Amino acid sequence: MLAVSDAEAIILNLVQPLDSQQDTEVVDLVAASNRVLASPVTSLLHFPHWDNSAMDGYAVRYEDVQYCSSENPAVLEIVEEIQAGYKPKIPIQPGQAARILTGAILPQGADTVVIQEVTRRKDGEVTILTAPKPQQFVRYRGSYYQSGTQLLPKGIRLTAPEIAVLAAAQCQQVRVYRYPRVAILSTGDELVTIEQPLQPGQIVDSNQYALAALVRQSAAEPLMLGIVKDEPEDIQKAIAYALANADIVLSSGGVSVGDYDYVEQILESSGGEIQIRAVRMKPGKPLTVATFSSPQAHLYFGLPGNPAAVFVTFWRFVQPVIKKLSGLAEGWEPVFVRARSLQDLRSNGERETYLWGQLFLSHEGVYEFRLAEGSHSSGNLINLAQTNALAILQVGETLVPKGEKVRVLKIN
Ligand code: AMP
Ligand code: MG
């Protein structure tokens, strides 16, 4: 049985990111939010576009005001009033200044802005009472960004700040990676859809919805293929269809050692190469990973059927895979923090154990982990609600006492 860290290394190594030429589309800027940029962006504009004032005040020649003070003020003639959006017309000569407002273009001849708070104005003259520093409150053209250089690199997720940058650069459309497509299959004779009436012994296929939501939250497109009976022929057909129509296939159930667990043998008979058969973790032990050289999908995850195992194995292994696949240049690795546990955390020590709960910051700014109340059986789905983190007990570790630090996987 593989250690979790070894399984992770194997899995991440198997991921082939989307192609930055072929697997892209051009979208309007508003639709680009949360997408991954597929080619670097450059702009023909400088930022700022012009030398401009950072404050309301007076544009001056530093030479004229460098020695002034309240005892020895400089008196300058005001030759123009420059507001934002206005192009100055009069160059500043010795002994002159221009009234200037925040964001407005600095006039020719001026090199420094004096804030209005240290001035007095009377008619056409301004009296400067305090010497500024040279070039104070001037934002120079190109000082934030030089035209023609890289504005944004490819492989980053476009969130509000990047969208704002692109808007400022007048990029109306951007090239992004297409969404990764993830096929979802549920196996099991006992499963019914959310619409069907429940007969004794049956359960609802919640994994289909769990996985669709998880896939969407990972900025990928779920392809919900529904329930497949525990019949080898049905499973084989469903897997073939899924492989032909998605980048990644996720199935749940049928990977354990029961009489009706056919997934692994069908993967092999369909030409898949089994990379992982079991992982030393709880829940999630029967996780099966296979690769295919064709057709479209390369990577197949046979997740265990138990709902909690589905979530844990998705968060631990599948989410980083989707992020890496989606073209992100970095930041796809899972994020761990250390947190103080608010309860005793227990495991039998045999496998790396994942316990669900909530991570938050205490008033003192310390991470704390609160274990979800109720059973941590992998069959219990109900107390997974509101989970935002998983506490992890290492192999051999049977207790993290209340108040002690524990390693925690952050979700999202
Ligand atoms: P299996 O790995 O196929 O033996 O499934 C283990 C258990 O997980 C089953 O007995 C069900 O209780 C549960 N299970 C399997 N598939 C699903 C599903 N799609 N949705 C919810 N629970 C499931
Ligand atoms: Mg089953």
Would you spell out the secondary-structure blueprint of this structure?
Blueprint: H1 4-14, E1 24-28, E2 41-42, E3 52-53, E4 57-60, H2 62-65, E5 74-82, E6 96-100, E7 112-115, E8 119-122, E9 125-128, E10 138-139, E11 150-152, H3 160-168, E12 173-177, E13 181-187, E14 191-192, E15 203-204, H4 206-217, E16 221-228, H5 232-245, E17 248-252, H6 263-269, E18 273-276, E19 281-282, E20 288-291, E21 299-303, H7 307-325, E22 335-341, E23 345-346, E24 352-361, E25 367-371, E26 389-393, E27 399-400, E28 405-410
Parallel strand pairs: 5-6, 13-16, 13-17, 14-15, 17-21, 19-24, 22-25
Antiparallel strand pairs: 1-12, 2-11, 3-10, 4-6, 4-7, 5-9, 8-9, 18-20, 20-21, 22-28, 23-27, 24-25, 24-26, 26-28
Helix pairs in contact: 1-7, 4-7
The structure holds adenosine monophosphate and magnesium ion (MG).
